[in-house]
């Protein structure tokens, strides 16, 4: 692995050196070309500037000659104008200023514009070796990071699986305990209900017996009371009948005689 890496680095350095040499040669050719073109531009600009200056000098002389001619003929042209207007030409000598003299026009010429001189170029250093090293280092770092992340994920998944298994076991135990507790409570409740039902049935039977005894005793007492009442009523009836008979008999006796 180390030998292959060294071979790769040697090849990269060789390619980098060749690229740097070629880049420097191309930069020198470019600078030579730009230098020749700049000289041509400077010569052309100098020639055009000289032509422009000569043209401006000639046009300035023509303008000065024209102004001189106009100035020299000012009164002559004024007299001609007065005559053409039907006026006395003497007016030109009595206060006239002569015909106006224009400034004339001047031609102006500018040199032909040329593009600015090209800028020189430089050779660029080949950075492919450093970029390759950076790529290898980045790949190594990413690989190590990927391995570390994978190990961390595996460890996390293992912890999660163990936690899930422990949680499932605890839940199963809790559910089993709850079911046992529920079954025990149901059994106890069944026994308690059965005992309570038996006790309630016995208590109800005893209560019914007591109630029956009370009812029978009450009925007996009522029967005795009714019997006594009946006897008393018969006795009273007999007494009443006897008293009625006695009263009737006494009513029939009058002064010691029995009246029929």
Number of domains: 2
Helix content: over 70%
Terminal Cα span: 172 Å
**Main sheet makeup:** 2 strands, antiparallel
Query: Reading side by side through the largest sheet, how are the strands ordered?
Result: 1-2
Q: What structural category do the secondary elements indicate?
A: mainly alpha
Shape: elongated
Tell me which oligomeric state these chains represent: single chain
Can you put this structure into words, describing what you see?
With 260 residues, the protein is mainly α. It folds into two domains: 2-111; 127-202. 80% of the residues lie in helices and 2% in strands. The protein contains three helices and two strands; from the N terminus they run αααββ. It has a two-stranded antiparallel ribbon with strand order 1-2. A hairpin with a 2-residue loop joins strand 1 and strand 2. Helix 1 crosses helix 3. The chain is elongated. The mean pLDDT is 79.
In short:
With 260 residues, the chain is mostly helical.
List the helices and strands and how they pair.
Layout: H1 2-72, H2 74-84, H3 128-252, E1 253-254, E2 257-258
Antiparallel strand pairs: 1-2
Helix pairs in contact: 1-3
């Amino acid at each position: 692995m180390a030998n292959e890496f060294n071979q790769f680095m040697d090849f990269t350095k060789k390619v980098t050196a060749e690229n740097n040499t070629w880049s420097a040669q191309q930069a020198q050719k470019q600078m030579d070309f730009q230098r020749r073109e700049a000289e041509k531009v400077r010569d052309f600009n100098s020639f055009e500037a000289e032509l422009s200056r000569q043209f401006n000098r000639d046009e300035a002389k023509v303008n000065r000659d024209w102004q001189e001619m106009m100035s020299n003929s000012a009164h002559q042209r004024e007299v001609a104008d007065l005559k053409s207007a039907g006026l006395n030409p003497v007016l030109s000598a009595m206060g006239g200023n002569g015909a106006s003299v224009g400034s004339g026009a001047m031609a102006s010429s500018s040199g032909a514009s040329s593009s600015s001189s090209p800028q020189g170029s430089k050779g660029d250093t080949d950075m492919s070796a450093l970029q390759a090293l950076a790529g290898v280092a980045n790949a190594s770092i990413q690989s190590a990071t990927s391995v570390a992340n994978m190990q961390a994920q595996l460890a996390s998944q293992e912890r999660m699986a163990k936690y899930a298994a422990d949680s499932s076991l605890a839940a199963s135990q809790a559910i089993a305990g709850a079911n046992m507790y529920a079954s025990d409570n149901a059994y106890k409740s069944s026994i308690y209900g059965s005992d309570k039902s038996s006790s309630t049935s016995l208590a109800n039977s005893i209560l019914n017996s007591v109630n029956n005894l009370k009812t029978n005793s009450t009925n007996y007492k009522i029967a005795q009371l009714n019997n006594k009442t009946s006897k008393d009523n018969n006795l009273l009836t007999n007494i009443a009948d006897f008293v009625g008979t006695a009263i009737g008999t006494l009513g029939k006796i009058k002064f010691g005689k029995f009246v029929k």
